Amino acid sequence: MKILIAVDQGLYSDHAIIEGARIAENTWANVTIIGVKSYKKANESDKNNSLIKSVKDYRKQFLNFFDKGDCPYPVHTSDYELMETGPGVYVDSPVLERAQKELKTIAAGTGDPLKEIFVEANDGDYDLIIIGCTGTNDCVWENNLLIPQKIVNEASCSVLVAKDVKKIKKVVCCLDHSQVSQESIEMINQLVTFHSAKLKIVGIAEGDNLKDKVENKIKSILKYYTAKHISTPEIEVVAVSAFDAFISAREEASLLALWMEKKSFLAKIFSKTKVTKLIRESHSSVMILR
Amino acid sequence: MVKGLIYLNADLASSIALRYVCQLANMKGILVDSIHVEETTQDMHTPGTGWVRKTWEKGVKENAGHKILQLVNAEKRSCIHLSDPVIMVGDHETEVKSTLGLKTYDFFVEGILQSFSPLKFKEKIFSKLYKNISCPVLLVKNFIEIKKVAIIIDQKENTRSLTDPLKKIIKDTGLVCDLVKCELNSESVVKVEEMTGGQDDNLDYSKTFIKKEAEIDIMKNIKIQGDPVAAADFLHDYGLVVIPVDKAMSKHSHVIDMMNQVASALLICWV
Questions:
Q1: What Å distances lie between residue B191 and A160, A221, B184, CA to CA?
Q2: Which residue intervals of chain A bear CATH 3.40.50.620?
């Protein structure tokens, strides 16, 4: 599995690093931390030094999550530096240290954060992008940039928007189709495990009943949990027509995960505008699973 | 031995209900019979009588029976008192009522998926079958491990309807039982109080009555005040909620709303 954690220099990025470390710890993922800058200074004398420093600090913060003996990622020596590979873009210098998993850091200070994040996401073939944002009735980056919403709407992989809010008590996963990957189920498991949260699977129904393929998918998810001797998730059925009301009525301390497929109802219900509204208004983290 | 009858369809709700009742059956040594009724609709051209009718019915039963048998066989290994399903053709309500009347079943079991909308739940509770059924009904929504049982009490005289089912199904299982008195209103903030002896006459009476008639020790007396959603949320930790229900109750009552929101299983004891 490959995770891309997109950060800037805002405080909410700390939360993205912690959530990324939690998921990485349990999934043994290869991780890239990409630091981006939302503006280009007219005076380039800074030469992105503050961004590079931030990225190094985030790297330390990520590694501090792991116990010294158990860390599968390379812990660089004091002469670790980032090398300039292009105008405003700095990546890890090659190191000789062996490690079980990869931890890459990139500082992309070109002033076009979205472009840098998507270039790396597409080149690196990531399974999950993690991004933080402000948590109080809004979800933006510094200077009110709608980076999180754009990533959620345009990424081709799963996206976790990590809001720095209260502890998650429940993970609510919604699906209306059967194309649910094993990796996405594992990701959900990790979230449930490290938050000690309860899990609810919500089947979206077109009419009164779930489609057979959705029921069968839920059955197979239940079998998976039984086989792993994990507490069986709760099941709930929500009609498409009531889905907005359901989203509004859910508990504050719950993480919403939507399994979105191109032809699914969720993709139709959640137009780009609605996804923007959802992540803005949600009191807790939102995960779009693709 | 205690006997339960479970109605099965080849669907998720039935699969969950079967697993749940097997959990209970293994705790108490309950015999579980299962049935499925393949309904004939008005559009079907059902042959009239005699050998042709019998052959047609046999074909319908075989088709329907295969999936139901698969469902039952999947649980049989862990559920020793589960018998092979009986497959019938006809009207669901008529055949279920008739089966319940043939042997003396101590309770009837059905699965229903938890739903955001209360319509399906209310349809079931206020169905003709449930109106006419006399034994308690175990309505299973989710498979939740049963560790604690909530026994809902309202008026003193309704406690009587709980004791026989509690004695047959819960006594000697080792499950922790709490008495819960729900004072439902429109307040979304729930108030939960653990009551000691002398604080609530209704709870004290019910505790003594249940101990005497059902031989069950009550761990806690609890009073909840709040709206149905908040009350159901409190009951979330209970693997089974036992509740007395008056068949004349209004569809729009707070109790019905709370029952719809309970996520685990309801043992409905008719008043």
A1: 35, 36, 10
A2: 2-163, 170-289
The full set of domain ranges for chain B reads 1-111, 145-271
| Residues of B in Cβ contact (< 8 Å) with A218 | 12
Show pLDDT as tens, one digit a residue, over chain B (271 residues). Answer: 899 999 999 999 999 999 999 999 999 889 999 999 988 755 555 566 677 777 777 777 777 788 899 889 888 888 878 889 999 888 888 999 999 988 889 999 999 999 998 999 999 999 999 999 999 999 999 999 999 999 999 888 899 999 999 999 999 999 999 999 999 988 777 899 999 988 999 999 999 999 999 999 999 999 999 999 989 999 999 999 999 999 999 999 999 999 999 999 999 999 9
> Which residue in chain A has the smallest CA separation from B142?
A234
Domain B1-111 has CATH 3.40.50.620: yes
Q: Which CATH number fits domain A170-289: 3.40.50.620, 2.30.33.40, 3.30.70.330, 3.90.1150.10?
A: 3.40.50.620
The reply to whether the predicted model has a pTM over 0.90 is no
Q: How far is CA A270 from CA A97, A204, A215, A259, A260, in A?
A: 45, 13, 22, 11, 9
- pLDDT tens by residue, A205-238: 887 788 888 899 999 888 888 887 778 899 999 9
Q: How far apart are CA B108 and CA B124, in angstroms?
A: 13
CB contact under 8 A, B116 and A218: no
CB contact under 8 A, B15 and A219: yes
Please state the CATH superfamily assignment of the domain spanning residues B145-271 in this structure. HUPs (3.40.50.620)
Q: Which of A8, A20, A19, A289 is nearest to A156 (CA)?
A: A289
Nearest to B113 among A235, A246, A249 (CB): A235
Distance CA A189, CA A98 (A): 29
Residue A284, CA distances (Å) to A17, A121, A165, A253, B205 in order: 16, 24, 6, 6, 44
* Alpha-carbon distances, residue B154 vs A8, B158, B194, B219, B223 (angstroms): 57, 7, 16, 18, 11
Nearest CA in chain A to B15: A219
Under CATH, to which class is A2-163 assigned?
alpha beta
Which 29-88 residues of chain A touch chain B by CB within 8 A?
A: none
Judging by DSSP bridges, how do beta strands A286-289 and A158-163 pair with one another?
Answer: antiparallel
φ/ψ of residue B112, rounded to 5: -150, 125
The CA distance from A269 to A276, in Å, is: 12
CA distance A144 to chain B (A): 35
Choose from A212, A222, A223, A231 for mutation: most chain B CBs within 10 A: A222
Q: How far is A139 from chain B (nearest CA, A)?
A: 28
Place of tokens 């015999």: B31
